[in-house]
Amino acid sequence: MLNKGNASSKNQEISESKYQKSAIVLIILLSVLAYANTLGNGFVWDDWGMVYNNQIIKSWANFPKVFVLNVFQDEGNMNNYCRPLLTISYMLDNSLYKLNPSGYHLTSLVFHIAAGIMIYFFTFSLFADNKLAFFTGLLFAVHPIHTEAVGWIAARGDVMFTFFFFTCLYLHLQMQTANNKNKQLMLCLSLLSFLLGLYSKEIMLILPIMLILVDFYRNRNLKHLRSQINNWLPYWGLAVFYFFIRSLVFGFKSSFNPYLEPLARHQILLTFGRAIIYYLTKLIYPINLSAHIAIDLVHKGLPWDVLAAIIILILSLTYALLSRKKDPEISFAILFFWVSLAPLSNLVPISYIRGIKFPMAERYLYFPSYGYCLLVAGLLCKLNKFKTRHLALGTVVFFLMLIFYTAGTVYANSFWESDFILFKKEARISPNNYFVNYNIGSFYLDRREYALAINHLEKAARIEPDEYSHFKLAACYYEMGNYPKAIAENLTALRFNKNLYASYFNMGICYKELKKYDLAAQAFQNALRINPRFNPARQELNVIRGN
User: Fold this and answer.
1) Which of 181, 438, 446, 506 is least crowded, fewest Cβ atoms below 10 Å from its Cβ?
2) What is the distance between the alpha carbons of residues 420 and 137, in angstroms, rounded to a whole number?
3) CA 412, CA 407: separation in Å to the nearest integer?
4) Is the distance from CB of 194 to CB of 207 less than 8 angstroms?
C-alpha cells in the first residue's frame, strides 16, 4: 500500500509538472501573439526625453548618476522622478540596440512575459489550483488594458515593478515551506526583489501591506498571522531604509499636481470615485482606450457615478469579508484590487500632466488588473460546474474572452506606432483634452498643415490658456505670412511668461518682414536682455544696425 501511495504521489507530481510547463509555454506564446506588433513601433511621447535624447543612458560611465538624477536627466519640474533600475534597463538597451526602438520594445515584452509567468507561479503557490493560476496568467498576458504599459517604452516601470512584486510574493510563500538553509536564501532573494521593485517604481512600497493579506489567505487563520510578524519585519525595515535614502537625495519635495492643491481631501476622494468607474469599465470592456484621460473634478454633491463607486466598493468588500473561507480566491482578488488601487486616489498626488486635473492613466491598472484577472478566473472555474456536451461552460467563456482580449490588444498596439498616429486617435477619443489638442496641433504644424494646426492649438488655448499654445499659434501665422497675427499671438504668450525670449525673437523677425526696423531692433534687444547668449537675436540685431 505504501508503494502504491508513493507511486500515486510521484505520478501526480509528474502530471502537475507537465501541466505547469504547458501553462508557461502558452503564457509565453499568447503574450508574443498579443504584443508582436509592438516590435515595429517607434519612439512615442516621453520616449524622446527618457530614451532618445537622454545622454545619461548612452554611457555606462554615467551609472552612478542614475541614483541621483530623474529619468528626464535634470529637468527642474520633475527633479524627484528617480527610478534607477528603469534607467539602467534603458542603458542596457542602448548598449545592445543603440537607438533602434524595436530592441527597447522587445525588452518591455520580455518583462511582461516574465510578469505573467510569476503571476502564474504565485497564484498556484497561494491557492494550489493549476487551472485557476493558468486562467489568471493567460488573461493577464493578453488583456488590452496593458497596452500602454507594455507598448510604451516610457511606461516600462509599471511592468518591471509588477514582475518584481510577484517574484517577491512567490519567494515569500516558498520561504514558508523551505528548510532552514533554503529559508535564508529565499528571504534574501525576496528582499532583493523588493529592493529592485522599489528602484523600478515607488508603488512597490505597498508590498509590506500586501504580505499581510497574502499570509492570511495562505492559512486563513488570524492566529497564524501573529507568528508571521518576524517574517514581515525585514520588508518594513527595507521600506524605511529606502524612504530614508530617497529623502536624503531628493528631500521631501514632490512633483505634485498643482490643480489638486486647492481641493479638499473629500473632493479628491469623490473624484477618485468617478475614476474608479472609468477604471472598472475599461477593465471589463477595454474599448476606446486612451493615453490621456481627463475627467471632471467633483466639487460638490454626489453624482451618480461617484455613488455607484461607493456602492460597488461597499458591496464588494462585504462579499470579500464574508466569503473569505468559502471562496478565498475571489475574496483575495477583490481585496488585492482595492489595496493596489488605493495609491491611485491622489490623496498623495502621484504625477502631473498639464491639462489633466486629476492624474489618471490606463498604465496604472497594469498591477491592479491582477485582482480583476484572478476574480474572472475564479468565476470561470466555478462556471465549469455547468457542463456542456464537450467542454465546461467556464472554459468556453474563457476562450471567447481570450480571443476578444487578444484581438483588442493587437488593435490597440497599432496606435502606438508613432506620435502622430497616437495623438490623432486621442483627438478623436478626447476632443476636449488640452494636452491632446496641443500635441496634435504641434504635429500638424510640423506637417505644414496650418489650418488644422490652428484649429487644435486654439482649442487647447481655450481649454487651458498658457504660453505654449499661443507660441505655436504664432509660428503657424508666421509660416502663413500673417505677421500681425503672429505678433499678437507672441504678445499673448508673453503675458503668460514674460521671460519667453523666443517670442521676442519671433516678433523681431515679423517686424523685420513688415520693415518696422525700430520695433524689430527693440524686440531683439528684449530677447538678449533675457538671454544674452542667444546669438540668433544678436546676429539679427547686427544686420538691422548694419543696414
Assistant:
1) 181
2) 33
3) 9
4) yes
State the cell numbers at 472: 505655436
Which tens digits make up the pLDDT trace of 267-289? 788 888 889 999 999 999 998 88
Distances (CA, A) of 266 to 274, 343, 542: 13, 15, 59
> Residue 462 to residues 6, 296, 355, 359: CA-CA distances in angstroms?
76, 16, 11, 20
β-partners of residue 392 are: 387
Instruction: Classify 38 as helix, strand or coil.
Output: helix
Strand partners, 70: 73
pLDDT interval class at 17 (50, 70, 90): confident
Q: How far apart (Å, rounded) are the C-alpha atoms in residues 190 and 185? A: 8
Cα–Cα distance, 482 to 492 (Å, whole number): 16
Which three three-digit cell numbers place residue 301? 454633491
Q: 489, 471 in Cβ contact below 8 A?
A: yes
Give per-residue pLDDT as tens, 76-123: 444 567 788 999 999 999 999 999 999 999 999 999 999 999 999 999
Number of neighbours of residue 290 by Cβ within 10 angstroms: 20
| Residue 375 pLDDT | 96
Characterise 301 by phi-psi region: left (phi > 0), alpha (psi -120 to 50), beta (else). Answer: left
HEC readout, 403-445 = HHHHHHHHHHHHHHCCHHHHHHHHHHHCCCCHHHHHHHHHHHH
Q: 186-194 contacts: CB < 8 A, separation 24 or more?
A: 187/231, 187/234, 191/234, 191/235, 191/238, 193/164, 193/165, 193/167, 193/168, 194/164, 194/168, 194/235, 194/238, 194/239
Q: Would you state the torsion angle of the CA atoms of residues 190, 195, 197, 202, taken in this order, to the nearest 10 degrees?
A: 140
> What angle separates helix 517-530 from helix 501-513, to the nearest 10 degrees?
170
Q: Each residue of 427-457: pLDDT tens digit?
A: 888 888 888 899 889 889 988 999 999 999 9
CA–CA gap between residue 256 and residue 387 (Å, rounded): 53
Full 3-state SS string of 327-390: CHHHHHHHHHHHHHHHHHHCCCCCCCECCECCCCCHHHHCCCHHHHHHHHHHHHHHHCCCECCC
**CA dist 297 → 132, 300, 448, 492 (Å):** 39, 9, 36, 28
